[in-house]
# Entry
Amino acid sequence: MADGPRDPWRVVADLVATDADRRAADPGLTAALDQERARFGAAAGDVADLLDELERRSVVDVDAPVESSRPVVPQLKLAVRKANAFVSRHLAQQVTVLTQTTAAALRGLHERVAALEAGRDVRDLQDRLLDHRPAVADRLADLAGAGARRDVGAPDGLATLPEADAALVVLWGFVDVVTAADLRRALARGLAGVAPGGALAVVGTDPAAWATAADPIVLDLAPGHPCHGDTIAHLLRRAGAAEVDVVQVGAALLVVGRR
Amino acid sequence: MTIEAVHQVVPSLRRWDAVGDHTRRLRDVLRGAGVRSEIFSDDVDPALAAEARPLRELPPPDPARTAVVYQCSIGNEVVDALVARGEPLVVDYHNLTPVGMLLRWAPDMAHLVGWGRSQVRQLALHAVLGVGDSDFNTAELDHLGYRRTATAPILLDPDVVAADEGAEGERDGSWLFVGRVVPNKAHHDLIAAFAWHRRHHDPAAVLHVVGGVAVPAYQAALEAMADRLGVAGAVRFHGAVTPEQRDALYRRCGVFVCLSDHEGFCIPLLEAMAHRLPIVAYAAAAVPETVGTAALVLPAKSPSLVAAAAREVLADEALRTEMVTRGLARLAHFHPDAVAARHLAALRSALDLPG
# Structure
């Protein structure tokens, strides 16, 4: 017996169930299309452009149109417009001043928010650059072996890291956007969490890839910048690590030191 | 006392306009039911001058014998006059685009829509009945506090819901969408999905977009987007076309793709069904209600998902046939005779009409 047509509901269910695979199969186009669609979002858009538009529209036209297809009406409208002109201009002037003042305040807020959002932009940048994560993950799995592994993705995570406990401690992500002093502290604290004979791995971003991958404003406003592998290796040795190795995997940088 | 006349007030009466057509057909339905009925409007297409009278000629209110149906639209001065009349008032609601969807692109239009929405709310205090042309629209009326509501679809030209016998020929692999170029119809999502389709399924595919440009800034942004994605040459913006030109595309294209975020009804979906064109649609607002089970209705609209759905429809002959069959069956639900009966039943629930 020949197969009948598939139920449209079943077709949709199957397509939905497999959509993540499709997106994952072409991350470049997925990201590009998501970015394009985001431009059209209700809350999206370039805030600076919107503020420009707000300022343009704040200048209220007090000369209401007087056209009409009916006879005499244009003359009547014109007379009404002239009679009300002083009131209209007075109101329009106040609207203009109010709107311009509001726009100026919003511009100030926008600049401050943009600076805060720079941190988010940096994380997005890291996500894009670390496209060799599977290869990095394989190396980390080898390092941990059967021992305990602790991943630290934010500075806060260092505070709760048990002393001399793990076969492998991994510091990742935040190491790109901390000050040099904070990086030194993080390395020392991370190494302290490693059991004797274990390893501390630092996963960062190659500074060269970083410098060419994003808007300069995003990079300049970021709270830190990635260090070269040699610099991290140097700091790791000063923190007490031995057998320090630096490996570059695509745009990712993996620095490993043993305790 | 029996109502002897049910007049309609519509802010604007235009040719090739769904609400305008509906208003004229409802007048004929009312006359057929034995009540006097005229259309009153101050903005009438010259070609329809004989169909309507100026608002100033609306007879003085006679609450015992006369009722008024207001064909709801964007904000206008007519509403204040209607409310002041005091006769039984019926609001026929075809929905209004949410203000937030327009604000960024067309602040002027957003203002008029916002005004219109506030008037719909105001009319809840005065109307004896609110009629939505979909359950989605009726739910809004219920939410606004209308004391009595009913659903009766928009009255269409019988040709719209009749199977197009000439639409059984060869089709190409192109996509079609019909609808005004406004942000709530999400042409940007359509272009994104189409770009995925071109990359992964059919590098020669074409997207036909039919509909007048209501928001020029949005149209310009769409053209720029298509350019950035490298599909500008494959996205054809036809603008407003004649019914013949539109029907030719319905007959030629391989799939109708609708990714609107807001539709109060969406007549092009029925047009596609009548032209035996399978539909892929995003499940927003009244769209699922209009298509029933006669479309691939998607719960999300990631470009890859939409493109994959369109590909299924284009590549699977059995699925296409099934969806066309379902579409033609679905049209019966919107046949003008059936819809006219629903309108009369709705009106009779609130007004004492003859018969």
About this structure: The CA atoms of residues 13 and 46 of chain B lie 10 Å apart. The mean pLDDT of chain B is 94. Chain B is about 40% helix and 15% strand. Chain B touches chain A through 40 residues (CB under 8 Å).
